[in-house]
Amino acid sequence: MAEEQQTQHTDQDTDQQSDQDIESGIREVTSRARSASRGLGSMDREHKDRTLAAVASGLRESAASLSQANDEDLERGREAGLSRSLLDRLALSPERIEALAASVEEVMGLSDPVGRVLQGRTLPNGLRLTQVSVPLGVMGVIYEARPNVTVDIAALGLKSGNAVILRGGSAAKNTNEMLLAIIREALRTTSVPVDSVQSIDAFGRAGATALMTQRGSVDVLIPRGGHELIQHVVQNSRVPVIETGEGNVHIYIDANADPETARNIVVNSKTSRPSVCNAAETLLLHAEAEDAGREVLRGLLRSGVNLHVDPRVREWLPAEEPADLSQDRAPFGTVSEATEEDFATEFHDLEMAVGVVDSLDDAITHIGRWTTGHTEAIVTDSVAHADRFVAEVDAAAVIVNASTRFTDGGQFGLGAEVGISTQKMHARGPMGMAELTTTKWVVRGEGQVRQ
Hints:
Elements: H1 2-6, H2 19-41, H3 45-61, H4 63-80, H5 84-90, H6 94-109, E1 117-122, E2 128-135, E3 138-143, H7 147-159, E4 163-167, H8 173-189, E5 197-199, H9 204-211, E6 220-224, H10 227-236, E7 249-253, H11 259-271, E8 280-286, H12 290-302, E9 306-309, E10 335-337, H13 340-343, E11 351-357, H14 360-370, E12 375-379, H15 383-392, E13 397-400, E14 420-421, E15 429-430, E16 437-444
């Protein structure tokens, strides 16, 4: 494990590397990944699960060292002025380390996605056709301060027979180095090609750019992070890209929504972990939902959420901070006038845009204008309105009477997720192992020739 860590470099090391050296290094990494993927594709489930068990054990055994490495990254992040949301994503507490190990074990318990027969038939000429699932091959993943992604991608890649190339960013340098060492040690001890999981962090941002040119060597590239990162990859990559993650998530409170239910759903959607992509960012209140609206707004303010409201919302706001709040409670949220930009913003913080609409049609129109296609939710007692919302709102996940925070691979029973795809080709929504496979047609004959 120590040997693995010695092979890692800092982003500063790239200052001494020429563009030619970086491109050559990336080609070498992708070549090793391609070779490793050939062995992974034919590996049986027992072998893959044994490797995943070793990864989970390694995470638990190294929990104290991981926490220390993560603390160092967090301290550097604070000194560098990272935002509260990025620091939250970067943090890897003992509880989160245990959750990572448990998610690896959950992946172990899932069926092998490789080798499934999706359809089959025999043609009139006697040819026997089957369509079977096979790994994509080599995946590149570019992400920001999210060390959990390192483990999630490695576990899902191994179980689905794909080699993975990771670019995790300098903010999580120490944590990712240790996680990669744990994973590669597990590969070595279970006789799996060690280059099934590699990092290109040694090549810095220039390495990520070079990876985007490796069409033919890398089968798919998946960016996970903020708008700028995702769009940079989408616009510059020659490798096919699956877009993930941008989440300008809306919750619409219908005219007949139950006030307590609405409050609980909205407060959970916004505050349980505001830095993640399935946290709600915009609240839409029906003009006749005054009781529910007042209850929801009070709950958000009591939870310390700063509200950006349109003029009609102000009429429903509490007159002032409740006097009964104790000193140890979170600060009462602030209120400011909403701008058009607020309704377009993914805050990733205890901030929320709030507007009033006159009808379900107006809510659907507003969402259609501002949605990023991630998750949209309705709180309603009307089955007809719920059905219309589900049918007419275009998003990867549409939720009725539940928190938006459920849009998650683990919550959906996928074990973990590569990301939440907001595109419409191949994969949409939380991407588990099935989305990391493609298909091949197998044709078996007895000498037939085409006439």
